Amino acid sequence: MPATPAWPPRSAPRLFVETALGEGVAVPIDGNGAHYLISVMRVREGDVVLLFDGASGEWAAQAEQIRKRDLVLRCTAQTRPPETVPDFWLCAAPIKKGRIDLVAEKACELGVARLVPVLTERCVVDKLNADRLQAHLVEAAEQCGRTALPALAEMVGLPALLKSWPEERVLFFADELGGVPLKDAFAANPGPAALLIGPEGGFTTGEREAIRAVPQARPISLGPRILRAETAAIAATAAWMSQNGDWTSCETK
Questions:
Q1: What does CATH list as the number for 88-243?
Q2: What is the pLDDT of residue 253?
Q3: Element containing residue 72 per DSSP (H, E)
Q4: What are phi and psi of 171, to 5 degrees?
Q5: How many CA atoms lie within 13 A of 54 on its CB side?
Q6: Contact 123, 202 (CB under 8 A)
Q7: For residue 249, is pLDDT > 70?
Q8: Which of 2, 16, 35, 96 has the fewest beta carbons under 10 Å from its own?
């Protein structure tokens, strides 16, 4: 006897929308989203598309009213409840275009709750295209199955970040001059946390002293080798997720 096909189909495309989702809600799609569904994925009347809005979980929706440049997706059933991710922030100095995009993409895939660009003295990039970064977060969430996007904060200077640092949140920072092995530091400091990664040139002496002066700061070592800023951000985030995050309790979807 043939197996019952999975529903919704695992091959169904996923799309982030800004419309609040719910039973029977009709979601009009145009622009790039319509082009992707109609021309790339060849969606036809009655096909299933998975939608998420960042707050209502994931919904299966059926395609209807398909035209050349737009269509309507009507929600039929919630397939996943709203997502809860670990309370972990990634605070990263902006780096060259392409590399900061990679950091945003992987932060989303790894389950980061908030991405905070931090301007430091040795940054070679002092401006960010927030719309482009947001687009990378959306694309990564669509691909990896997240139902909520990481919050993207406005870029903040390091002094301002440290001055207003929340009392209840541990601040791990990658100190190239040495610190506690990250495994030991993570084990000793469960709960809400953030990771601070510097730019290509690292933190200045004054910045390092200012960070260490924050009571919640915990300097950590990322091993014997010098890592690129984007590698450090991804590797340390993955290590935290595997020890204090949701990797140990996740189930295969």
A1: 3.40.1280.10
A2: 45
A3: strand 71-80
A4: -115, 100
A5: 15
A6: no
A7: no
A8: 2
Distance from C-alpha of 237 to C-alpha of 85, rounded to nearest angstrom: 13
Name the residue among 191, 177, 181, 199 with its Cα closest to residue 239. 181
119: left (phi over 0), alpha (psi -120 to 50) or beta: beta
* CATH among 2.40.240.20, 2.40.37.10, 3.30.200.210, 3.40.50.2300 for 14-80: 2.40.240.20
Beta bridge partners of 29: 71
Q: Whole-model pTM? A: 0.90
SS3 for 52?
A: strand
| Position 207, amino acid | E
The amino acid occupying position 208 is R
Q: Which residue has the tokens 């092995």?
A: 181
What pLDDT band is residue 250 in, cutting at 50, 70 and 90?
A: low
Q: Chain centroid to CA 62: how far?
A: 27
Distance between CA atoms of residues 161 and 148, nearest Å: 25
**What are the extents of the domains in the chain?**
14-80, 88-243
